[in-house]
Amino acid sequence: MKATERWFSERLQQDITLARWGHFGTPVLVFPTAGGDAEEIERNHLVGACGELVESGRVKLYSCDSVAGRALAAGIGSTGYRMALLNRFHQAVRHEVVPAIQADLGGARPRIVTAGASIGAFNALAVLCRYPDVFDAAIAMSGTYQLKRFVDGRFSDDLYFASPLDFLPGLEGPQLETLRQRRVILASGEGEWEDIGESWNVAEVLGRKGVPNRVDSWGSSWKHDWPTWREMLPQYLDEVCPERT
Question: Which domain holds residue 174?
Fold first, then answer.
């Protein structure tokens, strides 16, 4: 079962779409790649790759437009605008997308698993680290975590608060204590266009703060492309999402 809904986001000052697949199960929010829309994961057969998990009621998949990723990849607006939009995008996920998912679940509030590839992996990790009260685990595939190259090497408070590599070293208090009860899977190939070093950098930052994580290398035969992620995601969802009892 597939459905979509669309609304105007005051935070983003544009429309955003949320798509969903499945009937019930652990809610999984899959972020698109850089400029992808909410249905990108279906067109690239990632939803189909998870079909058995969806049909059996293990997971219910959701995806929203990559509003900030599109601006970063296309160089839309000033660098300041792109950094601010990234920060507001995470806020919109927390305060608009998450409530929409909860409403779709009949008001239930289970913690949500996040997932994504490339910049989608960055967003999956970022929202887990920023909002561990509502997210449970992150499956980050072939991640691109250092975004300064998309903003001409510049920096701002918006980028600081949006980027786990930047805000995690100074994170303390209840947010960190909650985050230490979550987990992060950093999966990467080592083939064409992959850079597993980005995953190891994130793992080091997470490890220093006591956040459970692991890096999985899939080796040199797996490149930065959809066939890799179609193999990865069902495997990790099977690990992270419990069977129905």
Answer: 2-240
